Amino acid sequence: MKNILLLEPSYKNKYPPLGLMKIAQYHRQQNTKRNIVFAKGEKDPKLTSYKWDRIYITTLFSFEWRRTEIMIDKAIKLVNGEKSKIYVGGISASLMLEEYQAEKKWEGVNFITGILKDTPVIALGLGRNDIGGRTLGGTPIDEMTPDYSILEQIDYRYPVYDAYFGYASRGCVRKCKFCGVPKLEGDQVDMPPISQMVNDIDKLYGTKKDLVLMDNNVTAAPLFKEIIAEIRDLGFTPGSKLKRGRSIKKRRVDFNQGVDARLLSKNPVLLKELSTIAISPLRIAFDHLGTRKVYEASIRQAAEHGITALSNYMLYNFHDSPEDLYKRLVINIELNQELGIRIWSFPMRYQPVTFKQRSFIGDKWNKYILRSFQVMLQATHGVVSGNPSFFGFCFGNNVDEFMNFLALPHEFLFNREFYFSGRGRPVLDEFMSNWNALSEPKRQLLMTILSGPIEQLGIRPTLYRNVLIDKTVDFEIRNIMRFYISYYQADRTSKD
Length: 496
What we know:
Strand 14, helix 12 (322-339) and strand 15 (342-349) form a beta-alpha-beta unit. It is globular and about 75 Å long. The strands form 5 sheets. A 5-stranded parallel sheet has the order 2-1-3-4-5, sandwiched between helices. The two termini are 47 Å apart. The longest helix has 18 residues, at 322-339. By secondary structure, the chain is an alpha/beta fold. 39% of the residues lie in helices and 13% in strands. It has helices spanning 18-30, 65-78, 91-95, 97-101, 120-124, 181-184, 194-205, 224-233, 261-266, 268-274, 292-304, 322-339, 367-379, 388-395, 399-407, 410-414, 416-421, 425-437, 440-451, 464-469, 475-481, 487-490, and strands spanning 3-8, 35-40, 54-59, 86-90, 110-111, 163-166, 169-170, 189-190, 210-213, 241-244, 247-250, 253-255, 282-283, 309-316, 342-349.
């Protein structure tokens, strides 16, 4: 009997660790008597359940480096320093292999990069006498049926769980500079039929409500029409429902990585096909104003075909500016009103895929306004709805107002109603009088001071008092700085 431990670091994530679920299935097929244990975080009491023969650790984003580090260090202790028993893979390990290998304390740990598309022995580098190493052929781990049973071993509940998770295709035809997919998955290739995965999951773990496909660019897949036809044949058509006892729930299809507006706008057939399945929401990226034409064309075509629930990923802090971001948000508001649809925007802050902290600052942004926008998003739980009045309240009714909001003391943003329409309004008015009196160069200087030194991670509001008493600093800046002193009290729980 062999004891195998599957580990996910303690970060919060929306979807289950599909790679670990497939590895669990591989080992379960090799020997049903194996103890296969899944744990999330370094404090799970199951970590000491057995003497482990193999530990697998998944990794997610680069900025979760610290939590991942803690997990790997814990695993080394669990195997009493026998690092060859530890296998680390996933997104971060694939994109930052050199960083992981540079850690001397991890010498001897096996780091697996990319997707497990080869036979298990090759993909995991197994020896002939290793666990599973005697079987040289076999189905690639990436094509195996996920083992849903391991999710029952942890208390953590993923926001999305009642779904078939899989891929209709891997890779992407694009080579976007901000994206790690080309390095992680490579060129676009087809995966085995979705129906095979769905049928296997049904037999082993029961019927799931939704179908979540993680393709990076399904609209570019050569077999796109066949993929959509297969989804229809599986019963995921518009309005389809799943009955469980007395409960009846509406089913949905979600290509959760989004579809390509550039392809949709050129080929109306693509959206016509998508309208024949229970897609909700249709996710379309809108990463900068330069793609406005193709984005709007795709949204209009979607509305024509009856797709009214849409969501879009909106990259910011890359080559864009705050003004660019605001204008994109407004375009969605206008499209909602014109077409009678519902677009939810998900602004996504750009971070290089190899940064260990969320510390990257785009050329047209700074730390303070990035934090300001983050505070604004907290009021909307990270989502920008299409309600015009609520949008205006949160983000401003025009670009100038938005830019003014970004410059406000964060206490004003945290306690919006108090300062905007309550007893704190005189304080806001006094601040705005001082702000309007500043020249543009002085405003820029103020933002630089509020952001702190370039090499400093995050914002340190406790340093603002030093500026207030430093008479070498311009008087107008010192005068307005007094409004920011209370920021520390309002934002003291910030991780920045």
